[in-house]
Amino acid sequence: MKNSKYYNVVSRMICGLAKYKLLLSLLLTCSAVYAILQLVQPIFVGRLTSLFIYREFNILVNVAILLTIIKIVEILIDSVRMYLTSYLTGSIKFELSCQVFNKTVGLVTKAFDKNRTGDFLSRLTGDTEIVSNIIANNLIAFLIDILKLFVITLIIFRISPVLSLVALALMPFSLLVFLIFGKPLRIKNHEIRVSGDDYFSTIQQTLSAIREVKSLGIADKMQTVFREQAATFRRKLLELNAITTKSRAVNRLINYLITIIMLCTSGYLLHKESLTIEAFVSFMAYSAQFTEAIKSVTEINVTVQQLVISLERIYRIIDNLDYENETYGEISLREAKGDIKFSNVQFGYEVDSEVIRDLSMHIKSNKTVAIVGKSGAGKSTIFNLILKLYNPEKGSITIDDIDIQELDEKSLKSVVSVVRQEPLLFNMSIKDNLLLVNKNLTDTMIEQACKGAYIHDFIISLPQQYNTLIGERGVNLSGGQKQRLAIARSILSNAKIILFDEATSSLDNESQLYIKKAINSLSGNKTIIIVAHRLSTIIDADEILVIDEGRLVGRGTHSSLISTNGLYKSLYKSEDMNKEEIEGRAG
């Protein structure tokens, strides 16, 4: 079964190389010519030796010139070969990296709940690097070495049939290395890939959250974790190196014994005058090439095990073997109204652990609706379901009476936009961050959107204005500025439905005021849904939905709920008490 899987992976790789057949053909041709030029040189070396011994210097000069020309051509061919190898390596890595990246970002959200970013990063960088290098360098070299063994055997056969038979009889012993060390190498390479995932994941998580790490004072703890994982990674590498060293030691011993046997045989034939000096010198040179080729062929075992492990990990992502595929429908929603309905929706992140329970609600178009409830009540989960980051286990969610499962991806993404508590901003200019939603936006359109989000005045006060770099995740901006920039981006996306997920929970009063003004400017033209901890920020909403343990337990305006809904009243009173306590401490 394992052998079948092994051959399936390799055969799939070979099929995938069909697109590079021209490049591979050129590389193989150059490598073959390079090998042939190396193979003919021992003949000339033997001839030069013979001419020198017999003092035929006139002919010797001509042979030396010819050998020099061959060497120059060999160097030129090798330069072309190295360039083609580099080009092929880059091409394969580019293709595989794009495939892995495209599949990774297309995985269902649950995949990222179950796996660390470092696991994907390891495949995207490490495994693609290994595969591309092995294909472009080792495998082609392996084919050429096989060719060289065949040609050298034929040449030696012409020199002496006895030497040829000895060489062929001894060759199977070199294969013992492959048979003995194949399985241990495959197992150890797999362990290294798993350990590498932990290693890369710790690096990625620590560096991406370096400010939080410093703020929490846990840098020393993260250093300890990294040191432990680096030590494990190092130990696995040393264990692999130990097996590889044993493999190579056995291989070298076998090759040495083969060389000794062949040299003794050739020496005996020379003594019996069955070989000439010229043939003996040529054979010595061919013997060195023969031994080197056998060494490379037998050591391909280590390389093949690395290749198979990396290919399996890459194909596991590309084929999405661990999760269901992310699916969308075929209906295109061209002019959305923004009407949303939940009908008996049930959902849980884990089996038998529902977060949303039989939820039914109707959010009318062009209304500003707030969703409130205790922590863990399912408020943010509602947003995740509307965005189709997760699919409901039961029930349905519709936009303009069309089930979101039937909408095509482009329609859904263009209809719904979200402003998170910590918006995703990239380390590029303000303008480039806004152009992400539509590369055809004009400067006027961008400025109008920023004015609507009350961020334009701040931007033009900067030295580089809209060309200002904002740092990774917008680190050079305040929380309120990031929120307003995210609102501007939502405006530019022309989404009919805008979701605000805890958008003002960590902002100061001035920033909250700007966000509130921005939301008010959108009201009446878009469906706005707000999840908020601070109830004081949403009392003006057209309607407030009260969620408790995944169920809708109340809806209405602030004034109606405060007098009729016990949960809403307790939440509001709790917020007032917290404010009084904070003000008391401040006083």
Question: Would you give an account of this structure?
Answer:
The protein has 587 residues and is an alpha/beta fold. It has two domains: 2-183 and 242-318, ABC transporter type 1, transmembrane domain (ABC transporter transmembrane region fold); 340-586, Rossmann fold. Helix content is 66%, strand content 9%. The strands form two sheets. Strands 6-7-8-3-9-10 form a six-stranded mixed sheet, with helices on both faces. Strands 2-1-4-5 form a four-stranded antiparallel sheet, covered by helices on one side.
Which regions contain 5 or more consecutive residues with pLDDT less than 50?
577-587
What is the level 1 CATH name of the largest domain?
Mainly Alpha
CATH level-two architecture of the largest domain: Up-down Bundle
Give average pLDDT, whole number.
77
The CATH topology of the largest domain turns out to be ABC transporter transmembrane region fold
Q: How big a fraction of the residues is strand?
A: 5-15%
Helix coverage percent: 55-70%
Order of helices and strands: HHHHHHHHHHEEEHEEHEHHHHEHEEEHH
Q: Describe the main β-sheet briefly.
A: 6 strands, mixed
Structural class: alpha/beta
Q: Strand order within the widest sheet?
A: 6-7-8-3-9-10
How many extended strands?
10
Question: Any idea what the shape is?
Answer: elongated
End-to-end span in angstroms? Answer: 74 Å
Number of domains: 2
Identify the CATH homologous superfamily of the largest domain: ABC transporter type 1, transmembrane domain
* Alpha plus pi helix count: 19
The gyration radius over C-alpha positions equals 35 Å
